[in-house]
Structure formats: C-alpha cells, structure tokens
Automatic annotation (TrEMBL):
PROSITE patterns: HTH_LYSR (PS50931). This is HTH lysR-type domain-containing protein. It comes from Xenorhabdus bovienii str. feltiae Moldova. Residues 1-59 form the HTH lysR-type domain. Coiled coil: none annotated. InterPro entries: LysR_HTH_N, WH-like_DNA-bd_sf, WH_DNA-bd_sf. Belongs to the LysR transcriptional regulatory family. Keywords: Transcription, Transcription regulation.
Length: 287
C-alpha cells in the first residue's frame, strides 16, 4: 500500500461518516480502526472527529487535513490506474433518480458497446453520496441541482438541457380548446420521477398562482400514465426523452411544448472527484 494505512483509515472514516461503516468498508476490526485514529490524533495533538451516537463529523482541523490529503491520494490512484480506463471495465454501475436525457444517452451508448455490462438502479438523490463513496456506483445521474460538498469529494458535469412537454388526448384538448384550459380544468397525472424535477416545483407554483385545485395523481409506472392520458382521464407533463412520439400520435395523443412556465432543467452526472481522470474519459465518450 503506497499510502500509510493510518492515512487510509482517516480518509475512510471521514468519507463514511462513522467508524462502523468505515471498518466494514476497509475490512478492519472496529477496535483496531478506533486505535488507529486515536494514534493519529495523539501524534498531531488535536482531535480530527466530533463523535456522537449517530456517527462522526470532521473537526475544523480534520477538514483541513482531509483537503490536504485528498489530492495526494488522487495522484496515487491515478498513477496506479495508469492507462486502463472505465471503457475497458466489464461492468459500469449507474444510479439515477429519474429518467432523463443523460441517462437515455448512457443506455444507448452502453448498448452499442457490447464489451461493457451495465447495472443501473433507482435511488433517491439523498442516497447518491454514500453510494458513490462506498463504490456501489460509478455514476449518479440526476436533474437535481448540485448541493455543496464541503469536503469536495464529489464533483459533477452538467450534461444537457432537459425538455418537458405536455401530453394530452386529442379529444380532451379539443374539449378545452387550449392548453391553459386543460391545465385549469383537468386532472394532472404525473410519473413519480417527474416530482423530482425542478419543473415540478414550477408547475406547483403555476397552479398556486392561478388557483388551480384539480386532482393530481402520481404513479411510478409510465405505462399507467400513458394509458390514462389515452383514455382522456387527464393530462401529463413529462420528460421528452421518455416519449415514443410515433406511438402517441397513433393513439390520438397530442404532444405540446411547455409554454406555461419557465423551467431551466439540466441533467447532471455525479462522480467521485478522486476518480475524475478515469471517469471523465467515459463521460467524454458519451458526448
């Protein structure tokens, strides 16, 4: 091991947020890990962690030490990884909290590359940090805007602009004569992933400003939403990347651009900063 074991112990506890999780992650007994950290603190003459019943947080001195050691570890890992890149990996692990343009493009690229397997899972945005830090994921793709990471462990790339559209049965649209009237008078049917998009907040704001109180239905299965829209039960606003335009036209569904409210929605690709050299090559491959 190029870096001191004790340094790796410190970095692991800082990133896992608890001694127990860190000990399991680096396969060391809990007492041995606690002693290792205590030895570092005794040597330095100050505490690195604030201990509590729910875990640990870095002290101010601990944060400074972490930021000092992080680029050193990054350089070491980049040297160790040398030429191999994620493109030669047998498996890529991707998490997302909603279906979006970046995720759709990633799927199509992976399908083209028959030498790489893809494992994808749905997670809440709040879970992405621990999943990336633990190595369970290589990437997390979301339309959720970045949250500051004080330890600067996770970085991201803005991938592309997302587009939301309204889908409405032609009969329901003709009954109301305009998109505005449809939104005022009919049920709103949403995919659960849409509720995680910034456009959802804008839609709620629009409904509140215009005193719209029609029923809102949220479903996890996109097929249910398409079915209800086809039958004229209500309308939906949905990410354009999900839609099969030819199919919707064939079953009498109109696709209407969102002109009712502004929605600056982008997809973001999150990954570990210390793996930036390795993963950015794959991100560039997606573009």
């Amino acid at each position: 091991m190029i870096l001191s074991k004790k340094i790796n112990h410190f970095l692991s506890v800082a990133e896992c947020g608890s001694f127990k999780n860190a000990s399991e992650n680096i396969h060391i007994s809990l007492p041995a890990l606690c002693k290792s950290i205590a030895d570092i603190e005794d040597t330095l003459g100050f505490k690195l962690f604030n201990r509590s019943n729910v875990g640990v947080t870095l002290t101010e001195e601990g944060v400074n030490l972490y930021k000092y050691l992080l680029p050193i570890r990054d350089d070491v890992e980049n040297i160790k990884s040398s030429l191999p890149t994620i493109l030669t990996k047998k498996e890529i692990k991707v998490g997302t909290d909603s279906y979006n343009q970046a995720f759709k493009k990633l799927l199509s690229k992976i399908i083209e590359n028959e030498y790489v397997d893809l494992l994808s899972e749905m997670y809440y945005f709040d879970e992405h940090r621990i999943k990336l830090l633990s190595g369970e994921l290589d990437f997390f793709i979301s339309t959720h805007p970045p949250i500051e990471d004080k330890l600067e462990r996770i970085t991201y790339k803005v991938h592309e602009r997302e587009t939301e559209v309204f889908i409405i049965s032609k009969s329901l649209f003709n009954k109301n004569n305009s998109l505005t009237n449809v939104v005022r008078n009919e049920k709103m049917i949403l995919h659960s992933g849409t509720t995680k998009h910034p456009c959802f907040d804008e839609m709620l704001k629009y409904r509140k400003e215009h005193k719209i109180n029609t029923q809102m239905l949220v479903f996890p299965d996109i097929s249910h939403i398409i079915e209800f829209v086809c039958f004229g039960i209500g309308y939906s606003i949905i990410n354009n990347s999900i839609l099969n335009v030819d199919y919707l036209n064939s079953v009498g569904v109109k696709i209407i651009p969102n002109t009712l409210f502004s929605s600056e929605t982008f997809s973001y690709i999150y990954y570990l900063k210390r793996k930036e050299l390795e993963l950015r090559k794959f991100i560039n491959y997606l573009n």
